[in-house]
Amino acid sequence: MTLLEAITARHSVRKYLDKEIPADIIAALQDKIAECNKVGNLSIQLVQNEMKAFTGILSYGSFSGVKNYLVMVGKKAKDLDERVGYYGEQIVLLAQTLGLNTCWVGLSYRKVPEAYNVGKDEKLVCMIALGYGETQGVPHKIKSVEDVSNASDITPTWFRKGVEAALLAPTAVNQQKFSLEYVGVKDCWHIVKASKGFSIIGYTGIDLGIVKYHFMIAVGDVCLKWK
């Protein structure tokens, strides 16, 4: 499965089987986590065989069987949420190619401080449930390309493809509060403006990071700069 195929195949899954993740898959995930932590200046951690975080009032009726999850941690900064989204989705899509299921989780968990580390200058932004799902999840209704971008007959074909992939990005409660604008070419670079909209729910920074990663996968080696 390619990453582009993983974008289409992946859906949020909240109920998991009691099935161990093989050591070779854990090793592949840990390698990717180490890479994302280094490049993204983050402290993402994989927690295994821990049942407390997704039990109790907050997760009641929503999650079941979750015993493996990613803790998305980083030093407090203005762009932390966006980096968490951008690099976290890299791990999520890798997990999909390895046969696992996932779910980004903003609120429906409880903190288990003894299971991971969060420094004094760091913030736990969110978690990502991980494992073998009871199902593969289901697709949700999405906005149109025109709803979130200025894609048209005069913008590059690759730009529309990028927007289509971005629309398959998971966003908090499927809010899709983002926009992508093709600005033009400057010094041989294609300029794309990515913006997040207002949301009472929040999490638009994380959403924008995920959206950007999906876009980048779809456009491939286009010389692109974000505005």
Highlighted features:
globular; 32% helix; four-stranded antiparallel beta sheet; 2 domains; three-stranded mixed beta sheet; alpha+beta; 227 residues; NADH Oxidase
Structural class by sheet pairing and helices: alpha+beta
What is the rounded Rg? 17 Å
Number of helices: 6
Into how many domains do the coordinates divide?
Answer: 2
> What profile does the largest beta sheet have?
4 strands, antiparallel
Strand content: 15-25%
Strand segment tally: 7
CATH architecture of the largest domain: 3-Layer(aba) Sandwich
Terminal residue distance: 31 Å
- Widest beta sheet: strand line-up: 1-2-4-3
CATH fold-level topology of the largest domain: NADH Oxidase
Helix content: 25-40%
Give an overview of the whole structure:
The chain is an alpha+beta fold and 227 residues long. The chain has two domains: 3-131, NADH Oxidase (3-Layer(aba) Sandwich); 145-226, NADH Oxidase (3-Layer(aba) Sandwich). 32% of the residues lie in helices and 20% in strands. It is built from six helices and seven strands; from the N terminus they run ααββαββααββαβ. The chain has helices at residues 3-9, 23-40, 80-97, 145-148, 157-166, 204-219; strands at 45-47, 68-75, 101-105, 122-131, 178-186, 189-196, 224-226. A four-stranded antiparallel β-sheet has the order 1-2-4-3. Strands 5-6-7 form a three-stranded mixed β-sheet. β5 (178-186) and β6 form a beta hairpin. The radius of gyration is 17 Å and the shape is globular. The two termini are 31 Å apart. The model has no long low-confidence stretch (mean pLDDT 96).
